[in-house]
Amino acid sequence: MVMPKLVLPKETKMTNGISLYTLESNVKDVVRFDMLFRGGYGVQQKPLQALFTNRMLREGAGRLSSAEISRKFDNYGAWIDMYSSQNCNHITLYTLAKHFEPMLDVLCTMVMNPQFSSKNLETVRRNNKSYFLINSRKVEVVAQRHFENSLWGHEHPLGHIICAEDYDAITRENLVDYHRQVYNSQNCTMFMAGNVSDNMLEAVATRLGNSSWGSGIGILPSDIAQHHSVLGRKMVCVEKALQSAVKIGSMSVDASHADMFPMRFLTILFGGYFGSRLMSNIRERNGYTYHIQAELDAYGKKNAFMITTETTNDHVEPLIDEVYKEMHRLCCETIKNQELELVRNYTFGELCREYEGTLAKSEVFINAWLSGEPFDTVNRYMEYIKNVNAEELQRVACKYLQRDKMFEVVVGA
User: Fold this and answer.
1) pTM of the model
2) How far apart are CA 405 and CA 252, in angstroms?
C-alpha cells in the first residue's frame, strides 16, 4: 500500500510571538481554529483548577452573559469544544468560513476577559460534581483514576485521585489565578485548518497577534512536574460491581526516543485491533472478556503503555496471567511475516482514516506539537511501517514488556 506524504502546516509568526500553523483547503466551507495554552493539569496548584478555568470561559465574558455566548454560537451554526488535558488547555472552534470573524470576536472575549461569575461557578460546580458522583460507581472510570495515580505518583498533579471535596474547595480566586498564569499570548499557539482566506488570517493577526495580551509568561515543558510511578498491584473496591476493571501498564518511551516507532507498532500488534494477540487469546480462546485493548496514551512528551479490559470477578487472576504470557511470547518468539503484513495493512488503513480531510489532519499535527516532535514525524512513521522488521520488535518487547516493570489496578466488588 502506498501512503502519500502529508503536506505539513505552514507557520506564520505573529508580531507578538504567537505561532499560527495553517492547513489550507479549498474544498470545505468549514474552518477549524484551535487555541492551545500549555500547562493543563501539570501546572495547576489545586485539583480541578485547570478544568474549571477552561470550562468557565464560556460562562460569561466581557459584556456577554453565558446565555448570550451560547446564543451567538447557535445563531451562526458554530460549535466550540473546550477541555484541559495533562499538559495543555484546548479551545477548538468550528464555524462556517463566512462567519469566522464574528465568531473569532466572541472567542477572543472569552479567552481574554472571562467574568468567572460566582453564581455560574456554583452551577458548573454542582453539575460537574453530580457527574463525578455518578461516574464514581463505574469501575472503568475509577480504574483510570487509580491508574494515573500509580503512573504519576501521589504527589504529582496528575496522580491526585479526585474526590467530591475537591469540587467543594475550588474558588473563583483559584480560577482567576490559573487564568492569569496560563491564558496569555506568550503561552499560546494556534492552528487553523479548512477554507482559510487572507481576510481570516488578517483578522487573527489583528485580534490576537499584534500586541501582547494577558499577564503571565510562557510555560515550558520542563515546568511540568516529573512522574514517580508506583509499581505493584492496587485493589480498589466498588460495592455491588458486577465486573472488575483491570488496567496493566507502565510509563513507556518518550515521543522523541528511537524506540517510539517500533513500540507504537508493537502495541497495535499486541492489543490495538480486533485480531490482536490479546483479543485472540483473552476473548476468542479463553472467553474471559468481551474486549481488551493495549494502547500508548500520550501525556505530552511522555507516553504510557496501558492494557485495559473488564471481566467477571472470578476471571481476574487467569486473565492477568494470560496477558503476561502474551508479553512473554513477544519476547521469546519471532513474529511471523504473515502477522507483520496483516498489522502493517491494518495500520496503513487506520492512518488513511485518521488523515482523511483537512480538519482531521489538523488534529494529527496538534498531537505532534503537543509531544514536542517535528511535524514530519507523521511522514517518518509511515516510512517506518513500510520497513518494520520482526527482530527490532522482539528487541523492543524484551526491553519494555516485562512483568516487573508493570503496575496493575483492579477495581471491582
Assistant:
1) 0.91
2) 10
